[in-house]
Amino acid sequence: MSGSTVLARCRVLVVEDEYFIADDMARALEQLGAEVVGPAPSREHALALIASGERIDAAILDINLQGQSALPVAEALAAKGVPFVFATGYDRNSVPPAYQDVPRWEKPFNPNHLARALSGLMRSGTA
């Protein structure tokens, strides 16, 4: 199964406060057939999208959004059973123990590689 098949019609929430990074991630996901939800540049915006009842199949989440922790977003996603990955400048030691098993992409990274990895994680069921 190709990456584009796995992400085709999947709705992926992008939670990132840096416009150019969010835009690059959105484009990479769309090239693989995903429909991007957001991007959400703040914790409040991301939580509102999750609470809206809009279908979200997976998410890419920056840990620090405009100086605020995005861990409440991770909690909301986990509560809904939505798989997610962290895309962050923080190292593994900065991730709380409850989220140590969440796949983490350390910035800077290639958004195309992240989109393809998300596809692989969804295929294997570990995202």
UniProtKB/TrEMBL annotation:
Keyword Protease: no
UniProtKB keywords: Phosphoprotein
Secretion signal span: none
Domain spans labelled Response regulatory: 11-122
Taxonomy, superkingdom: Bacteria
InterPro entries the UniProt entry points to: Bact_response_regulator, CheY-like_superfamily, Sig_transdc_resp-reg_receiver
Pfam families named in the record: Response_reg
Gene Ontology annotations of biological process type: phosphorelay signal transduction system
Listed SMART domains: REC
Transmembrane feature ranges: none
Residues annotated with 4-aspartylphosphate modification: 62
Protein name per UniProt: Response regulator receiver protein
Organism: Methylobacterium nodulans (strain LMG 21967 / CNCM I-2342 / ORS 2060)
Taxonomic lineage: Bacteria, Pseudomonadati, Pseudomonadota, Alphaproteobacteria, Hyphomicrobiales
